[in-house]
Amino acid sequence: MLGMHFSIAGAIDSAVDRAKMLGCNTFQIFTRSPRRWMFRPLDEAGVESFRSKATEYGMAPLVVHMPYLPNLASSDDVIYEKSVSSLKVELERTGQLGIPYLVTHLGSHLGRGREAGLKRLVAGIDESLGDVENDVQLLLENTAGHKNSMGTSFEDLREIMDRVRCSERVGVCFDSCHAFAAGYDLRSEEAVDETLGRLGRTAGFETLKVVHLNDSKGELGSRRDRHEHIGLGSIGYEGFRAVISHRRLRGLPMIMETPIDERRDDVGNMQKLRKLAGVI
């Protein structure tokens, strides 16, 4: 299942049309502007059209990504409360759209320490999942490892899942760029097998629901969250061929969040990915 992150500009159901044009059978969206706290309620007609088109085109499972501003590990009380409120809203909106997965970044403890960040993060997840009773699963996305960030290691993801009350509603989204930046090698078949083996032994393959396919502008262990076109970064074509063909990832939605520039656009990245997957 290959897809991309698509814009909802114009109307939310337009994302389904954009995905169909690129030949995707899965995709990811923001349900609102990712860089603002304010938002409008979802339009009922738009929601119905979105769900109808997704069913008609056979696109599933789909994925929603949390906005960028929330920080569930924040030591700032105002930001933390707004972040938890935002998570609740996105859980509700994701459910309205009939989408099973909501991906979230895990935020920063802002210098207060890992344990303080974990307590905030777990409490925010518990409150949100307790208040929003639907079938949406919250997916924890591994991070690149920049200063004070949460969820960089697979062990971190496992600890968060072990500490939340509604563990059955929490899973993992594996981001290739973030993992590589954090020091997990993905440049060869052997390296991919080792890295995914570590993921399975810690977070557990049963928790893995979505894969973000992004090459990395930074080198291995750079701690830089800089996405690159498939194959043109430090992971390279050999690495991505190994990732998308790995037995443990078969059947999972694979979503690209790659840039658009003079070298390549979404169509070009999808073509490269389909060639690597042996689809064309």
In short:
This protein is of the alpha/beta class. It has helices at residues 14-21, 44-56, 77-96, 114-131, 154-163, 176-181, 189-202, 236-244, 266-277; strands at residues 2-4, 28-29, 63-65, 101-104, 137-141, 170-175, 208-213, 215-216, 227-228, 254-256.
Task: Give a written overview of the molecule.
With 280 residues, this protein is of the alpha/beta class. It has 9 helices and 10 strands. The strands form 2 sheets. It has an 8-stranded parallel beta sheet with strand order 1-10-7-6-5-4-3-2. It has a two-stranded antiparallel sheet with strand order 8-9. Strand 4 (101-104), helix 4 and strand 5 form a beta-alpha-beta unit. The longest helix has 20 residues, at 77-96. The radius of gyration is 18 Å and the shape is globular. The model has no long low-confidence stretch (mean pLDDT 96).
The assigned structural class equals alpha/beta
Q: In what range is the share of β-strand residues? A: 5-15%
CATH class reads: Alpha Beta
CATH topology: TIM Barrel
| CATH homologous superfamily designation | Divalent-metal-dependent TIM barrel enzymes
Number of strands: 10
Q: Averaged pLDDT, please?
A: 96
Shape descriptor: globular
Please mark out the parts with pLDDT under 50 across 5 or more consecutive residues, or reply none: none
Structural Rg: 18 Å
